[in-house]
Design brief:
The chain is of the alpha+beta class and 346 residues long. The protein folds into 2 domains: 240 residues, Sandwich (Jelly Rolls); 78 residues, Jelly Rolls. It has 10 helices and 19 strands. It is globular, with a radius of gyration of 20 Å.
Amino acid sequence: MQPIPLTANQPADRFYAGGARIAAFRGPAGAPAAGDHVPEDWVGSVTPLFGETALGLTRLPEGPLLRDAVAADPVAWLGPAHVAAWGADVGVLVKLLDAGERLPVHAHPDVPFAAEHLGLAHGKTEAWIALTAAPVHLGFRRDVGTDELARWVAQQDTVAMLDAMHVLDLEPGDAVLVPAGTPHAIGAGALVVELQEPTDLSILVEWAGFAIDGAAAGHLGLGFATALAAVDRRGRSAAEVAALRGSRAGDTGDLLPDAAPFFRAERWRGAGEWDAGFAVAVVVAGSGALVAADGTRTPLSAGGTVLVPWSAGPLRLEATGSDLEVLRCRPPAGQQSQQGQQPDES
């Protein structure tokens, strides 16, 4: 198999606004959806939206769902080492997310909570790689009591929620790890590449003013008495929150080493050599190509997304000009080989 360029995969009528920045980033070749409530592009997805059976899944250009293609031949897609470690579980979900308005305060369960209460192998640790500047609310500044959190939710006291949270100002190129359980709210104007565990599990702390019935849909069917136990109510220092920002705009290579048990995010600039392995590539800037051992070329251009199967083999990243920047989003390492090497620029 060769790398596969993907068009946009944007579930319609989401409960928060966005989509214009995805359209501008992708351009016409990405076939982005029209509308002002299509704020997410699920790239190379084998994960449906919570409560859905197919919505959110990526369909390959030749017709089948990616989920079905991987299940039919997991080694070809994921590689023997990955399959030995993780089976046919792809292990990562990648999105483009455009916050046309501030998202509501919410959190995601961790693996033990998801296993105990939902029978799932994954929670939802996530990470953001910022493509635009925007503020984000991230973590509590002080310890929040169980009853206090429940009262905020019941009364939809948005002022109290936001006042208790840190604000982190993201700049383009920043990479931020969001451990499962951490309350957060991405600010208006943010366009991010989001990596996450392959689930769609959100616990809403806030929903007032959004087009969603949070009282019914905000607790994963568990009831808030159970669901809110997944929220990390610990107070974090400003330094602890700042430390979640793993890399800045000038960094290349592994952007979030602490995310390795969940997924890997690499930034590549200019030419390089990629080892064989499943990946979702997002072209942030510039143009170039992925070149296979037999010389087959997959063109790359800014705003493009490319699905890379393991069986594509080692690939050469070729740059046209000096501004090529590619994010290579990968599953957890497991028993896979180490990442490829960026050429020494010295």
